Amino acid sequence: MIVVIRPHTSPDKIDEVIQEVAALGYTPAPIHGVNQSVVAAIGDENTHPNLESLLALPQVERVLRVQKRYRLASRETHPDGSIVEAGSIPIGGRAFTIMAGPCSVENEKQLLTTAEAVREGGATFLRGGAYKPRTSPYEFQGLGPEGLRLLAKAKELTGLRIITEVLSEHDVERVAEVADILQIGARNSQNFQLLIAASKSGRPVLVKRGFSQRIEEWLLSAEYVLAHGNPKVLLCERGIRTFETYTRNTLDLSAVAIAKLESHLPVIVDPSQGCGRAELVVTLCCGAVAVGADGLLVEVHPHPAEALSDGQQQLDFTGFRNLIKQITPFLEAANRSLQTLPTQK
Amino acid sequence: MIVVIRPHTSPDKIDEVIQEVAALGYTPAPIHGVNQSVVAAIGDENTHPNLESLLALPQVERVLRVQKRYRLASRETHPDGSIVEAGSIPIGGRAFTIMAGPCSVENEKQLLTTAEAVREGGATFLRGGAYKPRTSPYEFQGLGPEGLRLLAKAKELTGLRIITEVLSEHDVERVAEVADILQIGARNSQNFQLLIAASKSGRPVLVKRGFSQRIEEWLLSAEYVLAHGNPKVLLCERGIRTFETYTRNTLDLSAVAIAKLESHLPVIVDPSQGCGRAELVVTLCCGAVAVGADGLLVEVHPHPAEALSDGQQQLDFTGFRNLIKQITPFLEAANRSLQTLPTQK
Amino acid sequence: MIVVIRPHTSPDKIDEVIQEVAALGYTPAPIHGVNQSVVAAIGDENTHPNLESLLALPQVERVLRVQKRYRLASRETHPDGSIVEAGSIPIGGRAFTIMAGPCSVENEKQLLTTAEAVREGGATFLRGGAYKPRTSPYEFQGLGPEGLRLLAKAKELTGLRIITEVLSEHDVERVAEVADILQIGARNSQNFQLLIAASKSGRPVLVKRGFSQRIEEWLLSAEYVLAHGNPKVLLCERGIRTFETYTRNTLDLSAVAIAKLESHLPVIVDPSQGCGRAELVVTLCCGAVAVGADGLLVEVHPHPAEALSDGQQQLDFTGFRNLIKQITPFLEAANRSLQTLPTQK
Amino acid sequence: MIVVIRPHTSPDKIDEVIQEVAALGYTPAPIHGVNQSVVAAIGDENTHPNLESLLALPQVERVLRVQKRYRLASRETHPDGSIVEAGSIPIGGRAFTIMAGPCSVENEKQLLTTAEAVREGGATFLRGGAYKPRTSPYEFQGLGPEGLRLLAKAKELTGLRIITEVLSEHDVERVAEVADILQIGARNSQNFQLLIAASKSGRPVLVKRGFSQRIEEWLLSAEYVLAHGNPKVLLCERGIRTFETYTRNTLDLSAVAIAKLESHLPVIVDPSQGCGRAELVVTLCCGAVAVGADGLLVEVHPHPAEALSDGQQQLDFTGFRNLIKQITPFLEAANRSLQTLPTQK
Fold it and tell me: How many CB pairs under 8 A join B and C?
């Protein structure tokens, strides 16, 4: 770390900083500049105490980190991209993964017709919320265990693998029985206890970026899963909170490019949360392919206008077929191809 | 709700919207404007389905809510401010509450000397983290149950009431045995399962605003606690995420004024998370008093430069005494006075 | 507009609102809901006074606009995309436009070698700042008129058309003599006097989105140019300000998709302002093509590490050739092709 | 500056950085850490080139500035707060300045009755826009020169000093004839040519913070005025753009505290832009006093509901009297008193 001393600090006050740096286990290396001095603290920042506490000293102006805080998630430790296998399907290679299905599991007919439609269209994973995090306590909270039962049935009938959200540490085991991928939603992106519990399930974990998570923090949330022993982690960009009000969130495609550069983990894009028009969803999916995403997580519903949650952002079956058609030339340009389901389930 | 139809929509397409509105249980009231039509949907928005799903229809341009989404937290339902009793101490009346103590419970000596100092200075609640949510899995995560034991000891010795954070549904019961107030941190502000579990404990719950929570969403997080049967809720503003990099977060004092206007719940301000200098903490506390806060949650440490977490934002004992001295005239201006501990514990 | 009345408002207070709405020239249409009343104000919002002033009445809770505020920039008025001709080169059609060159014009050799290189690589426009808006008064402010002279010379020698920024109303005429497109930078995106002066020059005007401009506001800045009689407007997305600190700005590719949906104006993407690594620039350009951009504005410098401004974001000549190579398959996927210079200059 | 080298960089690539640092005029001081090396560049950052261009080298990970970029605006160069005299009235001392008046000058009666009311109430400056920056070209743009004439008349009749906005370099001279303070609005906060022109007028200049200006950038905008020879600068916080939608902007009172810490310049708070309710304006003004503001810029209108611009945020005369009454005890707590007009005009 670099400790920046305020201008006009007396030598003995600089010495005080040098001694604190040494007391905390670093080797101090002072550099006296023209206007200001800095004290470089030599030592591994990830195993020594954070020197930011030195800001409590009045002569310290700033403390700058040098090292990155994530290790296991970093591409430096793993120069090739990772391939994460989920339900025996590899995610992150040349094949591009489509995860599609309704926002919420509403009933058997809705789920099964959707599963059939998205499998036909090219999906290999069925998404669908059994447990729904809703901003208001008065909104539909999902079918719970009955939703899980329906997901298991859809898997049985179609061969699609399942991705679904887990909201509570109490439910991790139950959800992991059905899900091939556990989804951690944006609202729980820094619910570290849930990340740890999901890690320990052994199931692949998809970590959505929080509404206002910096990329470093998002990778550190992934690092929680990795550091607790589970190497199967997928990142998911789903839109950040900005000043813009045209859309609910601002899908941050540049973050996909950065995540691919900084990390070896596969990156999935969920375009549905941010926009209220099918036309936008399709265009953003083309963009996602072009910036290097490894797959899409997209909401599809038989009759969006009557959905129990977030109908405005769900594609109908025609819209889903059109999506696949539109992204196909961009997949070719990116030298990728649509993933297919293994012939036997 | 108001459903805005796109310009140049044909009458039969407007009828389609009218019928969907009726099918969802509202009474439709179309209004034909000069350039555009709108369909007002008459009915209680909080018990009928959300019409935003109608955005799935191409002729629908926007859907505007009319009603507020929170009810129990709203000042409309409770025009006088609420007083929340915690450990037999009333919060939210004329008396102004100081909650002070270290960021993390580190060891017995640290905690007990700090408890003594803040009680002398004017605090009625001791704060201190036994369970710490840390952005990186490699940072100090708190002493856990041992931290709780030390908090209980400090309470026993000083009479101070205890506020401490709970991170996991699994720990709610254990923390509630010691804590007079359960703190839900910013990272868990939309961890609805934790809010529900905290509600059910029956203990007062302090709900911190999330990094990027709109005020409406913050009040809806409080609504989760209220709707699950626990009326003892405190709101806490602790800084939001903005583009500014001078401070870690931007303490939003205007949100305090708005929360007092919109809600009857007491509002506490935590100035420590946002700023790295004692001087700023003191000034922001004066501001908090002036905009109507009911109390402060402030970090105090015997030797901030060596704190195990966030030393830069913690006041030392001299700094704490100075804080109390500085806010005193502003408390008088606000016609408030420092709360005192009941003589018998 | 829709005027939302607070719950529990007495009929005579609702009447007061109805009368104010009528006094301001609208036809009021009150709707009495279950919990709240609203007063719809029938009339053209763009020629009547803004009813937001009614919020000054205590019984008014909110005022909601129905109509869009931009007209000439709107796709509704012009369903096909516009083609803007600049220096006899059409922008916005099937051909994809590359505008490239240094951040600042530094000297003759730097500019001419860069011009030659970008022309060879596939650019049709040369960019280069003669007047530079710099955050600090102590930073290099550009060569001014001498920079314009060098741009004119580069145009003469290479046939490339010129795009350059204008900072001051005083300079519009002088810049318009040399430039085929006047660039209005992000810092001046709501400098309406400059927009008006640029409009009156008759030259095509490229309007960059401000750091924190909502899309509606960006289109209204374009509307200033259009409404003052100049139909030749290009939009340019160049990154918005968010909480993210990995990059200087967050390039908002979703705004490109939205701008294409809402407006008929061509949209150019400037990826250079946001990122400090050539690798990212290239990936984001592929994304820009996929979301529907009509061209790129990209910084190229012979030796970026020694640039007088913003070297970190400039491509060298090899980087530029690689950029063109990388975007080519995505242009094909988007059914577009690189624009070429007319054979006679 | 500190140049951070990527991990695993070979010694000759580190040498390349060292040589570039030396070539740019700094003395390089390499420090070899446990995991990564850094090269400290010794030299005055404000007179040497910005090393961020070195990010163009692939082995450079980050470049960190050490020094602050503003000098004349910095409190380090001027430890006591400045007092800026405008129209012979000192701003920034113990006396607290009230600047009040309508958003826009609409007509003689409106302006003169308001001027009379705010003078009675305790204002020393009359505010009122003759030139209005409006987001849409179709909105009321101000009376222009006729507005200036009315301001001059109001000054003549009441003795109030005048503050009014200037939008164009062309108008600086004309506005400076009437105005005691030139106001640079948020949309022009980085219109550097206008800042320079305002500086050269010799009149005091009030620099509003841009919608998304970091505090450092705001102080650098002030630095433009100072560096061009005019020491009479006032800072003005007026609300920043965040994700919150309850208010139009988020008034950032913490920025006032920081500006007072970092700079010697007086700070004025404009609470009107952010909020749509008189109640909030008053509370935020109390907060402004408590965090150290030197004055208020507040909108007052005889009949806000019929104002030609922004009626929702303007106080009526009763509201203004109430504001003064409410802030009075907080002024006492801050050891300040309301400024009074000198007895002879």
Answer: 56
Structure tokens at B186: 């910013």
In this complex, which of C50, C223, C241 lies closest to D212 when CB atoms are compared?
C241
Q: Which residue has the tokens 């916005």?
A: C92
Across residues B212-239, what is the average pLDDT?
97
Per DSSP, B120 falls in state H
Q: Are A255 and A270 in contact (CB under 8 A)?
A: no
Q: What is the pLDDT at residue B47?
A: 82
User: Which segments of C53-160 are extended strands (E)?
Assistant: 60-64, 84-86, 89-91, 95-101, 125-127
CB pairs under 8 A between B and D: 131
Task: List all chains that touch chain C, counting a touch as 3 or more CB pairs closer than 8 Å.
Answer: A, B, D
Query: Are B112 and B154 in contact, with CB atoms under 8 Å apart?
Result: yes
Distance from CA of A280 to the nearest CA of C (A): 7
Quick check: C254 and A284 CB within 8 A?
yes
Neighbouring-strand partners of residue C27: C42
Where does residue C318 rank: exposed (0-12), middle (13-18), buried (19+ CB within 10 A)? exposed
B182: DSSP letter:
E
Q: What count of other Cβ atoms lies within 10 Å of the Cβ of residue D343?
A: 6
> What residues of chain B have any CB closer than 8 angstroms to a CB in chain C?
2, 4, 7-8, 29, 31-36, 38, 40, 42-44, 64, 66-67, 76, 212, 241-243, 245
Domains of chain C: 2-64 (3.30.70.1140), 75-338 (3.20.20.70)
Residue C230 CA to residue C224 CA, distance in Å, equals: 9
* Alpha carbon distances (Å) from A344 to A122, A139, A178, C284: 16, 39, 18, 39
Nearest residue on chain A to C292, alpha-carbon basis: A283
* Alpha-carbon gap: C272 to the closest alpha carbon of chain A (Å): 12
Q: How far apart are CA A124 and CA A103, in angstroms?
A: 17
Mean pLDDT of chain B: 93
pLDDT of residue B46: 80
Joined together, the tokens standing for residue D45 give 């950052």
Distance between CA atoms of residues B7 and B30, nearest Å: 14
3-state helix, strand, coil in chain B (%, to 5): 40, 20, 40
Nearest to D89 by CA among D231, D232, D209: D232
Please write the tens of the pLDDT for every residue from D220-264: 999 999 999 999 999 999 999 999 999 889 999 999 999 999 999
**Mean pLDDT of all residues in chain C?**
93
Question: For residues C66 and B282, what is the distance between their CA atoms, to the nearest angstrom?
Answer: 45
Which of A8, A27, A32, A35 best tests the D interface by mutation, with the highest count of D CBs <10 A? A35
ipTM: 0.95
Question: C77-117 pLDDT, tens per residue?
Answer: 899 999 999 999 999 999 999 999 999 999 999 999 999 99
- Report d(CA A134, CA B192) in Å as an integer: 8
Contact (Cβ atoms closer than 8 angstroms) between residue A190 and residue B190: no
Neighbours of B289 (CB within 10 A): 29
Q: How confident is the model at residue D344 (pLDDT cuts 50, 70, 90)?
A: low
A325 to chain C: closest CA residue: C333
